[in-house]
Design brief:
Elements lengths: L4 H7 L26 H11 L20 H14 L3 E5 L2 H12 L6 E4 L4 H13 L4 E4 L5 H7 L7 E5 L11 H11 L7 E5 L4 H4 L9 E5 L13 E5 L1 H14 L5 H11 L2 H23 L4 E3 L2 H6 L4 H7 L6 E5 L3 H11 L4 E2 L9 E3 L11 H7 L5 E5 L5 H18 L5
Helix pairs in contact: 1-3, 3-10, 4-5, 4-9, 11-16, 14-16
The structure holds pyridoxal-5'-phosphate (PLP).
Length: 418
């Protein structure tokens, strides 16, 4: 029977026949697995290490850093959501991002990226990768890739890395522009891979692989996990792209543990319901904030706000299925006003992270993006008055009331009429 995405994702990776007809998949905490005989054990291990002439082993597990039944089940669920040939899960979003970037970059395969990006990714690209001999180039945008190629003396990138909408400024990148340019400039021996961090919208609201990206990345700590009770990351893409990522994961050791994989698989069953309801709540809050604070103070990946921000909203209309539930608000009074707003909130929890059932609020300039150089923050629009809200599943009117009273406190601090 032909099924739709939500149905496939519900059952992916597990059949009750595998475990006493239990409706739900079991959790396998085992670190290691028994080989049926020594010859099979040798075939497994020699294949894992790429020993020449190794016998092809039968399907099976060896050791949980290389693979585990619970991990495989959870990966099948992520692959179902992304409609990808394969997916890999990690101990964190940063483990997914760093492992994938290391796997597909080299001295001959520089990384080009468009900012802003999550602060940790920025740091990894600008500080860590160059210290490991990788060339990294920050692009001004995707409109002038040909000029960037001239500027690098014709040295092609191995990776074009994007985050759209970007954390925390909601800047949108047209994935297809990068994918089309990469396809035009790729050769058989030099494939340029387009990688997209899709943490902000998730697979329900944005489908980068369908826009031509090769790998989609997630902090699964956010919407995929969705309950602020686990740290995880994910990468989805073609079998070839993910095979190399899994090879690096084996040696860097950043795989997800079975318990977290099981929790994540459970969360992914309700992903669409949470995402859609959180987005609905965000829509109501956004409409209210535009009225109360003025359109210029409000940022989001919704078409109305992108238009007000001077972004090309047609890109979002074409590649997004919605604006999601992340809200940016520029509070009067700079850092003092922003802190007064955050300290006055009663329902929104003052905490970094996003995409959970409860609403969260934070100050990017001093918290999630504290490590980004001041000049870069200024050029990207991460100002001192900017706060980031992640809208959860509380009643929207309670969230509106909370934001309203906190805004009034901030206006008093900034000596503005309330
Ligand atoms: C867009 C984005 N990508 C990646 C990460 C890193 O994920 P993690 O904290 O799970 O390592 C984050 C974390 O906030 C994020 O917001």
């Amino acid at each position: 029977m032909k099924t739709r995405l939500e149905t496939r994702a519900m059952f992916a990776g597990y059949r009750p026949e595998e475990a006493n007809m239990a409706v739900k998949p079991p959790l396998h905490p085992a670190s290691t697995f028994v080989f049926p005989d020594a010859r099979t054990g040798a075939a497994h291990m020699e294949t894992a290490y790429g020993v020449e002439g190794a016998e092809t082993p039968p399907d099976g597990f060896i050791y949980s850093r290389l693979g585990n039944p619970t991990l495989r089940m959870a990966e099948a669920r992520l692959a179902a959501w992304d409609d990808s040939e394969d997916s890999a899960l990690f101990a964190s979003g940063m483990a997914a991002i760093s492992t994938t970037l290391l796997a597909w970059s080299s001295t001959d395969r520089p990384v080009w990226y468009v900012g802003p990006l999550y602060g940790g990714t920025h740091h990894f690209l600008d500080e860590v990768m160059p210290s490991m001999g990788r060339e990294v180039r920050q692009l001004e945008g995707l409109e002038r890739l040909d000029l960037d190629l001239i500027a690098t003396g014709g040295k092609l990138p191995g990776i074009i890395y994007l985050e759209t909408p970007a954390n925390p400024t909601m800047q949108i990148q047209r994935i297809r522009t990068a994918a089309e340019w990469a396809a035009t400039h790729s050769t058989e021996s030099h494939r340029i891979l387009v990688m997209v961090d899709n943490t902000y919208l998730g697979p329900v609201l944005q489908r980068p692989l369908e826009e031509g990206a090769d790998v989609v990345l997630y902090s699964a700590t956010k919407y995929l996990g969705g309950h602020s009770d686990l740290i995880a990351g994910g990468a989805s893409g073609t079998a070839e792209a993910i095979a190399k990522v899994k090879e690096f994961r084996t040696f860097l050791g950043g795989m997800i543990d079975p318990h977290t994989a099981w929790m994540l698989a459970r969360s992914m069953e309700t992903l669409h319901v949470r995402i859609e309801r959180q987005q609905e709540n965000a829509g109501l809050l956004l409409a209210y904030l535009r009225e109360m604070c003025g359109a210029d103070a409000v940022k989001s990946a919704w078409v109305e706000d992108l238009t007000a921000m001077g972004e090309d909203a047609s890109i979002a209309q074409a590649q997004q299925k919605g604006g999601g539930s992340m809200v940016g608000l520029t509070v009067p009074g700079g850092r003092e006003g922003a802190f007064a707003f955050l300290d006055a909130l009663k329902l929104f929890k003052l905490a970094v992270s996003l995409g959970s059932t409860e609403s969260l609020a934070e100050h990017p300039a001093s918290m999630t993006h504290a490590g980004v150089p001041v000049a870069t923050k200024e050029s990207l629009g991460i100002t001192e008055g900017f706060v980031r809200l992640s809208v959860g599943l509380e009643h929207p009117e309670d969230l509106i009331a909370d934001a309203t009273q906190a805004w009034k406190v901030a206006c008093e601090v900034a000596n503005l009429p309330v």
